[in-house]
Design brief:
single chain, alpha/beta, Carbamate kinase, VC0802-like, 2 domains, six-stranded antiparallel beta sheet, 15 helices, globular, binds aspartic acid, binds magnesium ion
Length: 446
């Protein structure tokens, strides 16, 4: 049986029933034979109970106004404990310390980044204890650990702290001979001064990836509430399917479009060590989900997914002077740089550069500035469709399939862009978006 790190997000530990499901799933990852020697046990990472991080931040803001309120925070946790037949003792100390921390904030009338990290940390500190207590109550030997007590060390960039290299050895050392299922707080750590830090919102995935890399596990499991990463947004394409295997590079292209399951940046530590990450569904635990691997070569399937973006503005910059001159593109990008606007797509001919900025801000200023060096034409109401897959790079005939599908659906393609990469994007009229996406999806996946 493979050795795994299992990460459960906020909704997966959001109430007693969800936590019961977590226990059922954890049980399936314990090898009955290996359990005798207590090696190879899964390591569990948890987020705070759903919504808790926001509630803690809110309590901090109230404390600044001298309102010491933590009823909701207390009630949510106590209700879960009660429903699981566990005693309040499990989190008694944390609630007490949280109360003290809020009082300190109120007295000082100030909440700095470090104090905010410390405040948010109570969410994971409580959820990990509740999950461990429940695992024990159903016969799975488990222990809650704060990430910093098993070796997570970061710099002091509160709110978005970076892991220090020594973390990996620390974790390998402290968890190697684990005798029970260890339930670790996601998202938080401590710096070298012993102050609590956080890894940034949603940081529990990052915690899991670091643990997986440090322990060199066979797989990191990210448990969410969908069957992995989908071939397209199911709200637009009801026939969207779960992707079996996807490369890290492909997942990164998709994440950009908000394929929300997980942010590839957070699993970089695992990818560097070639440890696969699997996105799974707690509501459908036998579904294989989506496996993200670092090695593109091993993946079959030419196209992995279709992403899209609405409300895109297309800026066409035409200069007869561009012909045979150097430095024109640099002048163009200088303007975008001036307004700190990043660019999604670029396509050029000898006389025209087409660009889609990734925000609608500053378009008027950009147009004005660019007009000094070229003729500028701004078209609003466009949409971008991106086809993502390694096959774009090395399979003859793929593009023709994309454009035939679009053509048959009467979708006019205004701009095309593909670098030597795995993402081919087209700009179409916004009103053609849905038809275009469905046509390409049908061509490759249905
Ligand atoms: N609880 C933290 C947050 O809400 C971290 C996480 O859920 O991954 O951002
Ligand atoms: Mg999350």
């Amino acid at each position: 049986m493979p050795i795994v790190v299992m990460k459960f997000g906020g909704t997966s530990v959001g109430n007693a029933n969800r936590i019961r499901t977590v226990a059922d799933i954890v049980k399936t990852r314990i090898d009955p034979k290996k359990e005798a020697s207590k090696s190879g046990l899964p390591v569990v990472v948890v987020s705070a109970v759903t919504g808790m991080t926001d509630l803690l931040i809110k309590a901090g803001q109230e404390a600044l106004k001298k309102n010491l309120i933590m009823d909701q925070i207390t009630d949510i946790h106590l209700k879960i404990l009660e429903d699981l037949n566990l005693t309040e003792k499990v989190i008694e100390k944390d609630l007490e310390n949280l109360g003290k921390h809020l009082k300190k904030i109120a007295d000082k009338g100030d909440l700095d980044r470090q104090e905010l990290d410390e405040l948010m940390s109570f969410g994971e500190r409580m959820s990990s204890k509740i999950v461990a207590a429940h695992l024990n109550s159903v016969g799975i030997d488990a222990k809650a650990e704060s990430s910093y007590d098993v070796g997570f060390v970061t710099n002091s960039n509160y709110g978005e702290a970076e892991i220090l290299d020594q973390t990996y050895d620390n974790l390998a050392h402290s968890l190697k001979k684990r005798k029970e299922v260890v339930v670790i707080t996601g998202f938080i750590a401590k710096d070298l001064h012993g102050k609590i830090t956080s890894l940034g919102r949603g940081g529990s995935d990052y915690t899991a990836a670091i643990l997986g890399a440090a322990l060199n596990v066979d797989e990191i499991e990210i448990w969410t509430d969908v069957d992995g990463i989908m071939t397209c947004d199911p709200r637009l394409v009801p026939n969207a399917k779960s992707i079996g295997v996807i490369s890290f590079a492909e997942a990164t292209e998709l994440a950009y479009f908000g394929a929300k399951v997980l942010h590839p940046k957070t699993i970089l530590p695992a990818m560097r060590k070639r440890i696969p990450v699997r996105v799974l569904n707690t509501h459908n635990p036998t579904h294989p989900g989506t496996l993200i691997i670092s090695d593109e070569e091993k993946i079959e399937g030419i196209i992995k997914a279709i992403a899209f973006k609405r409300n895109v503005t297309l800026i066409n910059i035409t200069s007869t002077r561009m012909l045979y001159t150097h430095g024109f593109l640099s002048k163009v990008f200088e303007v975008f740089d001036r307004y700190k606007v990043s660019v999604d797509l670029v396509a050029t001919s000898e006389v025209t550069v087409s660009i889609t900025p990734n925000t609608a801000h500053h378009i008027a200023e950009i147009k004005k500035d660019l007009s000094r060096v070229a003729h500028v034409d701004v078209e609003e109401g466009r949409a971008m469709i991106s086809v993502v897959g390694k096959g774009l790079q090395d399979t003859p005939g793929i593009s023709s399939r994309i454009y035939k599908a679009l053509g048959n659906a009467h979708v006019n393609v205004e701009v095309i862009s593909q670098s030597y990469g795995i993402n081919q994007s087209v700009i179409v009229d916004g009103k053609d978006l849905e038809r275009g996406v469905k046509a390409i999806h049908a061509e490759f996946f249905e």
